[in-house]
Protein 1
Amino acid sequence: MSSLLSLRNIGKSFGGLSALSGISFDVEPGEIVGVIGPNGAGKTTLFNVVTAIYPSTEGEVLFDGERISGLPPHTITKRGITRTFQNIRLFSTMTVEENVMVGRHCRTGAGVWRGVLRTRGERREERGIRGKTRELLDLVGLSGTDREMAAGSLPYGHQRRLEIARALAAEPRLLLLDEPVAGMNDAETQEVFRLIKRVQALGVTILLIEHDMSLVMKACDRLVVFNFGRKIAAGTPSEIRDDPQVIEAYLGAAERDADA
Amino acid sequence: MEWLNPYHLQVASFMLINAILGVSIYVTLSTGQLSLGNAGFMSIGAYTAALLSTQHQLPIPVGILAGSLLAGAAGILVGIPSLRLSGVYLAIATLGFGEVVRAVLINWESLTRGAVGIAAIPQVGRVILVWARDRGFSPESLGLQSNQFISLTVFLILLFSTLLTVAFFLRLSRSRVGRAYAAIRLDESAAAAAGIPTTYYKVLAFSQGALLSGFAGALFAHSTSFVSPGDFTYHRAVEILVFAVFGGSEHIIGPVFGAAFLTLVPEALRAISEYRYILYGILLVLMMVFRPQGVIDPALLRRFRRSGKGTPA
């Protein structure tokens, strides 16, 4: 079986500053792969390259065997890759429901005239969007009373889960999660862990950036370790735990996270 | 029927034309794009309608349709290169476009008669009166004098056009396309990541705004029966923007209210007309300080709905 995502020698530099270089690894269907590394190691830059927030300067990204480098962001979403952001980026004045409904955009088709005339097909489509939205809000555990609220007024942890629901609304095959439990307490982290497992059970492959080592070790099938824009190790969580290079580069930070 | 004053009806008619212009800038703003080119698009609509009816004797509805579509097409042409710009840079570029159009109108004398403008454009109320009289109808049978009938007809046509425009864009704002617009306004790259083709929708909104400005311009030409480049200066562009800034740009009712209010108040204050622009300026400064989102915002509308006093939307 071919890999779902293949990164071939990805490099990204901003001016003369190299943020990523020579990054190659594959993600297989159904896996949860963790991307770890100290702050500034290039993890979020990798997500931005994969989702075409900005283009890579070198290398290519293959999704399901096809080259997606150079495609615009919305096309990549439609192909089946969606993401969340490290600094939550919800549409803050829209309601919780509307945020998820926006995520359905690429799986629906009503244009100006059908929207204005409210044709039968359009009304059916809107019902479908609302149904799927409720389903996803149930999945991430946002209850009925929250749904009419402005997204920006939700508690922080709920905003992170809403962002996951919005990303799932596009029916991705690959979900990129950028620090989904940053700033959360243990109970909230547990909830997100269970959510990630539920999403995996739906058949979605997950690429996860996270600093919380207990979550990463528990949730991920494989880990890729970055430092200074390079991949320094890859393997199962237990292999990574014992890798001397990783210990040198990273575990100091991991201990600090474990204390927090 | 003495109370039916043609002057009052004319003020009301300008309120409605301005309301459509207010909606035109609201549509563009609803994707986060600030356009100051709407006076230019308005002039394209006005001149197209005026020339088609005076030079080619085409029926008024044909001219209005052609004027709107031509302005919309110009919107696509201006909108595509302007996508590289945002915020104040887009505003400056579109302002420049408006001035270019005006310069063309002034200098292309063989077509536009230059600064003199185009007079004797068929006035829609008069045309309908003539048409009705030919068929044996006389406004006197309704107790109306001819000029009352003319002003009333214009007012009703504009009222219908405005209601249609507001209903169209109100429905659009609650559809899939409207959600895409709002998402782009709130966070363009998050919208793209959520699967929205931002370029397409930005050009769409820009050209819808242009088309609507052209529509308002064509209606203006057939209501006043005279257009000149002086009607479409940058003062007009700023005035259109102010409708949205004052009334609020987050809900379609905002610019409609802003247009109506800011057309009515200067008329009411004609007695102290020397000072009215001073008051106008003070009003805007106060708005920026105390209510930068405009008089009407979604929170206000929600409060109205909850208190059950009525549903302005």
Protein 2
Amino acid sequence: MGAFTQIRARIGALVRRVPKAARMCALVALANGLAWSLIVPPFQVPDENAHYAYVAQVAERGTVPRPAREEMLSPAEEGTLEAIGFYGVIGEPHDPAPFSQRQQQAIEAVARKQLSTRGYGDALTATNNPPLYYVLEAIPYKLAAGGTVLDRLAAMRVLSALMGAVTVLLVYLFLMELLPGRRWAWSVGALMVAFQPLFGFMSGGVNSDDLIYLMGAGVLWAVARTFRRGLTPANGAMIGVFLGLGLVTKFTLLGFIPAVALAVALGLWRAWPQQRARALRGAAWATGLTAAPVLAYLALNHLVWKRGALPGGIGSVSSGSATGPRFSFGAELSHIWQLFLPPLGMRHQFAYVPLQRTWFKGFIGRFGWLDYTFPEWVYSIALYVALLVIALVMAELVRRRQALARRLGELAVYALALVGLCVEIGVESYRETIINGELFEQARYLLPLLCLYAALGALAARAGGRRWGPAIGAALVMLAIGHDLFAQAITISRYYA
Amino acid sequence: MRRVLACGLLAIVAAFALLLLHREPRRSGSDTTPYATGAAAVLNVGERTCQGQELLPADTAALRMTIHTYGKPGARLSVSVTGPHGAPLTTGGLPAGWRQGVVRIPVTHVSTTTAGATVCLRDEGPSPVALAGDSRDQFHTMQVDGRTVEDGQLRYEYMRPGSESWLQLLPTVVYRFSLGKSGLVRHWAWAAALVLMLFAVTMAIRTILREGT
């Protein structure tokens, strides 16, 4: 009893140390994520059927999925997908969600059949993912065990929304470390994230990306703490925990490893020689706690689940089809470059400009199974707003150039996190092109960098100084709110009108 | 800062008021045949196509399809919809002279939903038409002049009467919001989403005011 009281007291003290504004921003994100979870019809978040199948496999059989000969889901999930008209709605922006009582009766009839919730072991596109997110989602799945597939999905979406709230909390804490001095700017950045429509949309659905956003924000927060307070054992442990758990959520976070390695190296260098022992312990904690979950995952794959150490591989490329393109390292480098930047004397690999179509437009808003967007004029306005924000950020950086010069190492770490993630996405994209000839990249893959997006917002607001800064910040937050509400309006129009 | 927040809120409210008052034709439903511009069937003068297993939604007053006329003025079309046992549900048509593209064919207003309906469309001349659709799914069956088309089905969209604003459509949207969701949330999901967003916006404004002053 004494231990329980002590733990409760420690948690209480920890929560009280989090600023009230941070908790308020997290609550905003939670409310927004829950609203999105109610607005978006079941299974209309990308790959939600696959992620649900993975959770079902973990909860029902206590193991991870494995590729089945035929991609088949459990009878309960498959029956529900057919009853809600899933296959007729995804990718078809002209087709609404169920619109008549007849369809509702068909859905209820499937639920009454009590079909088996055990699948054939396959979780479609999610099959090769690491299990952390799915193990956590198995808790709401089990809590709603007496309900239907749709009940379980609704419960699982609540946990995703909670992850969104924690992500925003971590974003706030990151801004506190990164930009000390102007409290209101932290709220501006965190609220811009809380109302970012793509983030809200994803937070309202079942997708392992939700946990990777949290872990990405956690890593960057821990790195910012390390730059501000030194490479202490606690800060090293935090880096390791977030990165390690992130890696067993989705391997996307491999892109952060070079940045984290640089941060730890700079932490050691700055601590040398006065605080060498402490910094070495910090580095050891960072390395050990990053490696531990990954090694445990590799061991489980090999010894318990009897599958390859890294199912699906990472960036490995098979020969592809006999007639399709063949792997070439030069072409891969060119592919990665062109995925984010204009081609420079290279053979064009895209018939469009990915920076504009995939990343910018995708980040502003492309929802559902990438099947509906804003009207074109919204993207034009967004471009002007983005240019204005960038101009304000540049002005602030020029104004603070002396402080910036002192923190170039830290800036290099964040730049490396961006580059690392882009390269990781580029490798996966090239691999998908070679093997399946399909597009892989989506704007949501960049959301582990939400902290940097928030930093841009906070810096833009700070450019106004003490006099105009709060007003600029308020304008940015109101824009984010309007953007989010408009995204919800087009979602309602897409599915219910 | 308070002025900026007030102006922002006002702008959002004004934009949503405009949106709510915007009128346009609204769907009562669709047979979820993938949207395609390619022809699934060609009707020569006097020929008729019938497609079974359609879900005819309540509040339907027109059918919407994509029809090509090979650049000529459109032929006179007649439509009839029958129930699973052959009982007539509605009829309608379009006089000759319309332009190819997305075409709205008025029918007598339908007030109840019928599953397993058969929609028939006849080309009354003077020229052939090509009807847009996609490859066949496991539910629908299409015939042209009595012959089953093995690999094709037409896309039918069902339209509500006239044009409606979002405000007028709101009760329908609220009703549709309650369909196809978990029984735990479906009856109050729309209200909860509204309350949650009001809470989120209020909380955000409070945070900005608290921190910025």
